[in-house]
Specification:
Order of helices and strands: HHEHEHEHEHHHHHHHHH
Distance between the termini: 28 Å
Strand content: 5-15%
Helix content: 55-70%
Shape: elongated
Structural class: mainly alpha
Length: about 350
Amino acid sequence: MRTTGKLFVASVKMLYRDRQAMFWALAFPVIFAVVFGLFDFERAPEVRIELVGERSAPLHRALRSGLAEIESFVVTDAASEATARARLEDGEADVVVVVPPALPSATGGEVDLDVLYDRTNVEVNSFALSAIERIVGQVNLRLSGVERPPLSVRAHGVAGRSIDYYDFLLPGLVAMGVMNFSIVGMGVAVARFREQRILRRILATPLPPWRFLTAQVGARLLLALAQAALITATGVFLFGAEIFGNVLWLFALAAAGNLVFLNIGFIVAGRAPNPDAAAGIGNVVALPMMFLSGVFFPVDTLPAFMQTVVRYLPLTPLLEAMRMVSLDGASITATGRQLLELAVWAVVTYLLASRVFRFAEG
């Protein structure tokens, strides 16, 4: 045991001295957490609205004052309808409102309010059109002689759990960091050991090879937990992300997932002839999981057949379990199905690694 402990300490020191490994383990995922934290995903899109018509007209004034109350609307007056249409076609305006010079009560008939918009920008259009329809509805009520509508909406805010996109993203970044470092990091490190004949030299000593590998796994498991803590702290303390469950369960899940991905790292090392090839193979394995398993977006936005496929990727149950703890405040016991799936993956990847990886190669 003392020998294994000394090997573990030596392995930790080797990792610390490997600047490339430290970057991929600590700096790279933190950069992701910072970059995504700088974006305000909850802010409504800016809408550029141009009004065409007589500025002194009552409807023009009502529209301008009503639209100006919405912070994300930029309302300007166009010189003419032709100018506004040209700006709309050139992408310099999002919505053009052609305001009639007189209200229906003054003309004795119906008056149309023409709204022109870019059909390709659905989100902006629906946002702007709903606001315009609300203002026009209020004007219609006043024209009908309704000063105080008999039916009104009384909205009552109820204190609840507020979850924004960054709260959803943070557990995904933790899982992504653990996966990338374990698969690519372990694959490259073992391939480098083989290239430098370190593995062959160990076979010539009385040291059992499994002790050396156990020390390597333990060192990377420790660094993976430090990585998870650093990413979580960056999200919580710098960008105000909320974790509603016990953060210790997140670290326990990160450790469980790490064992699966370290096995995959050994499989990569078993197939790669050199460190560069190991990095390439590792990225080929990790990148599809990073984008398909739901790190950045919910998997239910994928086509139905792809949802079935990604359901069986090893990163998927880890992400599900982490979000159950982080977003739903669930205990780790509530993630039994996901833990069972990770356990199955751990057994399967271990058996594959045992067949593919050979300590004496090189």
